Automatic annotation (TrEMBL):
Keyword Transmembrane tagged: no
Coiled coil stretches, renumbered: none
Family annotation (InterPro entries): Aromatic_Lyase, Fumarase/histidase_N, L-Aspartase-like
PANTHER family: HISTIDINE AMMONIA-LYASE
Lineage: Bacteria, Bacillati, Actinomycetota, Actinomycetes, Micrococcales
Keyword entries, A-Z: Lyase
Pfam families in UniProt: Lyase_aromatic
Enzyme Commission numbers on file: 4.3.1.3
MF GO annotations: histidine ammonia-lyase activity
Lineage top rank: taxon: Bacteria
Protein's name according to its UniProt entry: Histidine ammonia-lyase
Length: 482
């Protein structure tokens, strides 16, 4: 059970909800939302409030007055904004979105009726998952995804996978429509899931690179304390220390100076971890940020209640952070491919070409290099900055967009492609070490022994054969904690 209090929500807890954990709302969160609702109602009685007493988008100048459908305007807004297209997203992605949205509402700045949040808890715990499709958001709030969620809560739309629609709420007041959908919860959730998977994957990828380093008798001088002390960033220094601990005592170096794919491992992984940490810091803020538009603030009891119409929903920083991480990952791909290439080279391993069983012209792991290159092509395409895009919509009322939604979806795609590249390197490195007669117990590093043991769990047969199963097994390995 994950308690949502609107103040703190760990990213692994969002992953837990995505994977099926139940949620509860803290009493303090309910009280905060009730006070925010009272403040919003009072404010809307003395001044225009976007989405409560006016239309939205280019209709922001249209005043909603009693008798012209004000009582049903919220429901109409949800229905009109619920359109999306493309393939349905996975259940765990949508459940992560629901957890993020609940946490944001619990922050108490939306003015929404707390009963909506209570119904959202029931939706999550009943494992009724709205069907959300891939095209809709542009980085200025996931209006379509959350409107569709509201229709699912109302029983108007079948959940993902079909089945019986059911009511979690009775009706939807106009005052609660925009506050519910004014969020980039889907985009944030996608970034959270990708961030958490990358945290484990990059750690494992570093261990796999360590195995390649040993298989090619790399020179540990490149990771010495002196090098770490001279590093240009703390992340690179930490990576140098990590690699030194991984491979120290692994054998005599074959070269005075290694190729870049081995010698610059601290820069390669340090830069990725630096960008990953920066994204994580931003995400931890966003998952508890009550920044709906308009923002309800102040205190009704103190007479300072008001709203602020703003643009915090434009996920500019999120798009930029994801883009920066994508660039770091994309830039590292050349060295991933080069290590795989050199593992196939007898000059670096002392083995037969392509790690074949013998020198009779067998292809060995030759085609794995092609698989890795195809995955790298996807990563590099995803690394094209999404934050450079823009668009003008709603009769010119909204003349820019961050496209953080595109960036987050691309990052999820990158995770899967990078897992494939890392898996290919693991298959090659493990085979090389096995053919060299190296054993996991030779090495002091627990991380290295664990990854090497995992690699040795792959099929030992070095004869030419179908390697699809090896890659699939290795892919599962590099996504797990070791």
């Amino acid at each position: 059970m994950i308690e949502i209090d609107g103040r703190n929500l760990a990213l692994p807890d969002i992953v837990a909800v995505a994977d099926g954990a139940s949620v509860s709302l803290a009493a303090g969160a309910l009280a905060r939302m009730a006070a925010s609702q009272e403040s919003a109602v009072a404010t809307s009685m003395r001044r225009p409030v976007y989405g409560r007493s006016t239309g939205v988008g280019a209709n922001r100048t249209v005043e909603l007055s009693k008798g012209d459908g004000t009582d049903t305007h919220g429901l109409q807004l949800l229905r009109s904004h619920a359109v999306d297209a493309g393939r349905p997203l996975e259940r765990r992605t949508v459940r992560a979105m629901l957890a993020v949205r609940l946490s944001q509402l619990a922050a108490g700045a939306s003015g929404i009726n707390p009963a909506i949040a209570v119904a959202l808890v029931e939706l999550i715990n009943s494992d009724v998952v709205p069907e959300v499709r891939e095209f809709g958001g542009i980085g200025t709030a996931d209006l379509q995804a959350l409107s569709g969620t509201a229709l699912t809560m109302l029983g108007e739309r079948e959940p993902l996978g079909g089945g019986r629609a059911r009511n979690f709420v009775e009706g939807w007041a106009t005052a609660d429509a925009l506050p519910f959908i004014s969020s980039s919860a889907l985009t944030i959730a996608q970034a959270v899931l990708a961030h958490e998977e990358l945290s484990q994957l990059l750690d494992n990828a570093a261990s796999v690179a360590g195995l390649s380093f040993i298989a090619m008798s790399g020179n540990v001088e490149a990771f010495s304390p002196a090098v770490a002390a001279a590093a240009d960033t703390p992340a690179v220094a930490a990576a140098a220390n990590d690699f030194h601990g991984l491979v120290e005592g692994s054998g005599q170096p074959a070269r005075i100076q290694d190729p870049y794919c081995l010698r610059t491992l601290p820069q390669i992984f340090g830069s990725q971890i630096e960008e990953l940490n920066a994204l994580g810091t931003l995400l931890r803020r966003l998952v508890t940020a009550g920044n709906e538009n308009p923002l309800v603030h102040g205190s009704l009891s103190e007479g300072s209640n008001d709203v602020a119409h703003h643009g915090l929903f434009q996920m500019t920083n999120l798009a930029r952070r994801v883009d920066s991480l994508q660039l770091a990952i994309g830039a590292a791909c050349a060295t991933h491919l080069r290590r795989i290439d050199l593992l196939c080279d007898p000059n670096y391993t002392g083995l037969h070409p392509f790690l074949a069983r013998d020198g009779a012209g067998q292809s060995g792991v030759m085609m794995l290099e092609y698989v890795a290159a195809a995955a790298v092509g996807r990563i590099r395409a995803n690394a094209q900055p999404a934050s450079l895009q823009t668009v003008v919509l709603s009769l010119g009322a909204e003349e820019d967009a961050s496209f953080a939604s595109v960036a987050a979806a691309q990052l999820q795609s990158t995770v899967q492609a990078l897992a494939t590249v890392t898996a290919v390197e693991l298959v090659c490195a493990a085979r090389a070490l096995r053919l060299q007669g190296r054993r996991p117990e030779e090495f002091a590093s627990h991380r290295l022994r664990s990854m090497m043991t995992a690699g040795y769990g792959l099929p030992a047969d070095a004869a030419d054969r179908d390697l699809r199963g090896d890659v699939e097994q290795a892919t599962r390995m590099v996504l797990l904690e070791h």
